[in-house]
Design a protein that fits this description.
Layout lengths: L8 E7 L21 H16 L5 E8 L7 H6 L6 E11 L6 H9 L4 E7 L3 H7 L5 H13 L4 E8 L6 H13 L4 E6 L7 H4 L7 H17 L3 E4 L2 E3 L6 H7 L3 E5 L4 E4 L2 E5 L3 H10 L4 E5 L3 H12 L6 E2 L11 E3 L5 E4 L1 H5 L1 H6 L3
Parallel strand pairs: 1-2, 1-9, 2-3, 3-4, 4-5, 5-6
Antiparallel strand pairs: 6-8, 7-8, 10-11, 11-12, 13-15, 14-15
Helix pairs in contact: 1-10, 6-8
The chain binds S-adenosylmethionine and iron/sulfur cluster.
S-adenosylmethionine binds next to strand 2, strand 4 and strand 5.
Length: 357
């Protein structure tokens, strides 16, 4: 069913399997459930088939994880044959560099994938080790070659800054090496200590605020000079290369989440699915609901949330919403009457956000 042809609508699929858990990661993923992969993908396919009877045309697909490129590419792609995907849709798969291979990429491209988001994190071996990553920079070079040869025109690289032992020079190397790969899009994330992770247990490896602020400013200079513009605090893109799917999250757009721990926003209602693959498979098999929780915001809360998201983007918010005490952290955006965060303001985004009126 096609509702409105110009309306944007996204689908997210969560793949909750990894080879091993990185020390900083708190995402919904398992390293000891490989035996469930086939059943899980079957359950997601069934979920997609049921949902497809009542969906608008899908303008963006994002397969995230976990490690989507750990599971069989054919089975993963077959899920999307169930869905009404618009011909020009953005179609992203998140990939771990050491698991990229030619056959897999060709299968993705044949199924319509046109964007890959690669979890690079660092281009310096000792920093990767400090983050608890398995791959090395050589894996990244090989992966990018395979991705490009398969015809993927839109590439994002994820980097993390602030690992223990990462010098300013190391971070410069990571950003410059990433830019040398000519990605259309680059995301840099401040290493965050998530409760329950190996990193949380190891105080000696916790990041320092000043170091992360210096690294953010440095990254912004290097990335902007290479022609990628900042359009959300952690995201830079070449012209026309913004991630359409993530833009839906930042503009309160609508999307359907498939699989475990996936969030949906449909008809003013937000809801999310259960977290464990076992329970998800059982619920789908029995034909019962996979919903674990839901929320509906009242109009005021909805409007405030919209401003809190918008201030993190380069579009910004109407000037009248920014309180006087933090106006010095904002500047005019390209949209008339709106202001966005200055680069220093981006470091203090939460301070500005909690003072929005
Ligand atoms: C959902 S993760 C999965 C990506 C993929 N499995 C990988 O690791 O390459 C997406 C991105 O979130 C970022 N990330 C995850 N945990 C983080 C943390 N604790 N602090 C900062 N960035 C984090 C990483 O850059 C990662 O590439
Ligand atoms: S960072 Fe990626 S590879 Fe590492 S545990 Fe998290 S989802 Fe898996």
């Amino acid at each position: 069913m096609s509702v409105e042809t110009n309306k944007k609508f996204g689908v997210y699929l969560h793949v909750p399997f990894c080879v091993r858990r990185c020390d900083y990661c708190a995402f919904a993923t398992w390293t000891d459930r490989e035996h469930l992969i086939d059943e899980y993908l079957d359950a997601c396919r069934a979920q997609a088939r049921t949902a497809s009877t009542n969906l608008p045309d899908i303008t963006s697909v994002f397969i995230g994880g976990g490690t989507p490129n750990l599971v069989p590419a054919d089975a993963l792609m077959s899920i999307f044959r169930e869905l009404p995907i618009a011909p020009a849709a953005e179609f992203t798969v998140e990939c771990n560099p050491d698991l990229v291979d030619r056959q897999q990429m060709e299968t993705y491209v044949a199924a319509g994938v046109n964007r890959v988001s690669l979890g690079v994190q660092s281009m310096v071996p000792h920093v990767l080790k400090s983050l608890g990553r398995d791959h090395n920079p050589h894996n990244v070079y090989e992966a990018v070659e395979i991705i490009r040869e398969a015809g993927i025109a839109h590439l994002n690289l994820d980097l993390i800054y602030g690992a223990k032992g990462e010098s300013i020079l190391d971070w410069t190397t990571s950003v410059e090496s990433a830019l040398a790969l000519r990605p259309e899009h680059l995301s840099t994330y401040a290493l965050t200590v998530e409760p329950g992770t190996a990193l949380a247990e190891d105080r000696d490896r916790h990041p320092e605020d000043d170091d992360q602020a210096d690294k953010y400013l440095l990254a912004n200079d290097l990335i902007s000079s290479a022609g990628l513009a900042n359009y959300e605090i952690s995201n830079w893109a070449q012209p026309g290369e913004h991630c359409q799917h993530n833009m839906l999250y930042w503009t309160q757009g609508e999307y359907l989440g498939l699989g475990v721990a996936a969030h949906s926003h449909l008809a003013q209602r937000r809801f999310w699915s259960m977290r464990t693959p076992e329970r998800f498979i059982k619920a789908i098999t029995e034909g019962s609901s996979v919903e674990a929780g839901a929320e509906e915001l009242d109009p005021d809360a909805w409007a405030l949330e919209g401003r809190q998201l918008a201030i993190r983007t380069s579009e910004g918010v109407l000037e009248e919403f920014v309180s006087d005490e933090v106006q010095h952290l904002t500047e005019s955006s390209e949209v008339a009457g709106k202001v966005k965060l200055t680069v220093e303001g981006r470091l203090l985004a939460n301070e500005v956000s909690i003072r929005l009126q």
